[in-house]
Design brief:
This protein is globular. Strand 2, helix 1 (about 30-40) and strand 3 (about 50-55) form a beta-alpha-beta unit. The two termini are about 30 Å apart. The strands form two sheets. A six-stranded mixed beta sheet has the order 1-2-3-5-7-10, sandwiched between helices. Strands 4-6-8-9 form a four-stranded mixed beta sheet. It has ten helices and ten strands. The protein has helices at about 30-40, 80-95, 110-115, 145-155, 155-165, 170-175, 190-200, 205-215, 220-235, 240-250; strands spanning about 5-10, 15-20, 50-55, 60, 100-105, 105-110, 120-125, 130, 170, 180-185. It binds ligand T3D. Ligand T3D binds near residues 64 and 142.
Length: about 260
Amino acid sequence: MTYQDIRFEIADGVARLTLQRPEALNAIHTAMSKEIRDALQRARVPEVRAVYLTGSGRAFCAGQDLAEVTPGGPIQDFAYHHRTVWAPLVLAIRELDKPVVCGVNGVAAGAGANLALACDLVVAASEASFVQAFSKIGLVPDTGGTWMLPRLVGPARAMALTLLGERLSAEDAVRIGLIYQSCPGAELETVAYGLARRLATQPTIGLGLTKRALAAAWSNTLERQLEVESEYQGIAGRTADYREGVAAFQAKRPPQFRGT
Ligand code: T3D
């Protein structure tokens, strides 16, 4: 597939996916969502050990391209549209067995905000902001927002963010635990892409299992989660990276993980 509205490149073990519709604040339409899914599929190759998602221009993503969903426009069945466009994007990120870092370069609104929150580590430029814009246009939060927000920031803040639809600064997003970190915009590349590069040198299988275990914990009992940990530790303990990690520790040298 050739891409019109995203850029995709692989370097240093990192698949870098850039939303590339700056004139519409990187709002996503159906064809663009297919490109993102295709790119995330391509990121499944072993050569890729981390993913970096960011936007071009002054925004990260303004969510659904409203031109496509205007009343009387081409898309009328929002349930079908969400099921086939937005939900699969969230799952493609959450189910990827490698870390996904999001570098939020500017405003992240509606489904764009929740796409960022679906990622594993979210770093935002200090001039970026997060808006649960849905209530402003009579829609409900989607793209996993109703699931992620209360888990990330608690029910009271999730309710306020979604009902009021006010812009939240990057700094406040860190303060309330919505995202991991913020930094000056000029440093986003160094900090956020730097995290992706660093993660790409780590024990990829172990990191993928960590991601899967933390996701499972949301709905598991402690007993079931202890069993998940046993199972995943069994897998991690059989990797070459575990052998390398212990050998490097004993030899007092830095480990050379290969993601196997
Ligand atoms: O079927 C389904 O599944 C429905 C699913 C819906 C999921 C959703 O995401 S619903 C929420 C959709 N998003 C929004 O409602 C956000 C709309 N945008 C805004 O509220 C503001 O643009 C921002 C807060 C993001 C930024 O404000 P500001 O003042 O910095 O920029 P602006 O001037 O409003 O926008 C700049 C341009 O981007 C402008 O175009 P123009 O006038 O310069 O030609 C604007 O129309 C365009 N733009 C912004 N957001 C969208 C968009 N174009 C299409 N779709 C957008 N979402």
